[in-house]
Amino acid sequence: MTITVAAFYQFIPVPDPRALRAELLPVAEALGLKGTLILASEGVNGTLAGESAAIDGFLDRLGQANPPIDRLELKRAPAESIPFRRLKVRVKREIVAIAAAEADPTVSVGTYVDPADWNALIGQPDVTLIDTRNAFEVALGSFAGAVDPRTARFSEFPGFVDAHLDPAVHRRVAMFCTGGIRCEKATALLKARGFAEVYHLKGGILGYLARISAGESRWNGSCFVFDERVAVGRDDLV
């Protein structure tokens, strides 16, 4: 049996998240998937694991949902076993909580930077590089020279921005997170607060590690993931 762990999200207006849950939950159950799927009026966010064919089937079903969720930011990784004990499909206010209404990626986000172009961007001296993850994640690994906001949860990030960042001083800001979703919220927040040049790593750390060779990588350490694997490195993703 070939097991795949799929991490995905998409910011898209969802008029009725509860109806979408009723639509998707029995599909995921029938396919034997485990993990978590979060639904909100701003989109979907999930990490699911199961047989590779079952993952493919569920992703195809997302594309047929109401509304169609067919432009996912998606990362797949092989696993020896399913790293989740059960399936959870939840409706929440946000698919990733930042508690700042102006942080709306459906209105405005920063500039996406492909992993192949990331090293060149963060190597420029006028770019402020910020790790948007929580302190316990940063402790396992990060990009060299990145600022650690020392947050315990993502909802503390707006406070870090208020206390430590100034659009008149920090004219070019690049941010990253595990898979890209927190960065979309973070760049939307900075754009709404007047920061002119804001960038984020497309596909997040996981996308970078999967595509950039060990010899070229500027990543140090491992990447925390929210499942029984705890942390992954490049060799776990390629």
CATH-assigned homologous superfamily of the largest domain: Rhodanese-like domain
Helical proportion, percent range: 25-40%
Pairing-aware structural class of the strands and helices? Answer: alpha/beta
Shape: globular
Sheet of most strands: 5 strands, mixed
Q: Which oligomerization state do the chains in this entry correspond to?
A: single chain
Give the domain tally: 2
| Spans where pLDDT lies below 50 across 5 or more residues | 234-238
Distance between the termini: 19 Å
CATH architecture of the largest domain: 3-Layer(aba) Sandwich
In the CATH scheme, what's the topology name of the largest domain? Oxidized Rhodanese, domain 1
Q: How many helical elements?
A: 7
CATH class of the largest domain: Alpha Beta
Overall pLDDT metric: 91
Strand order of the largest sheet: 4-1-3-2-5
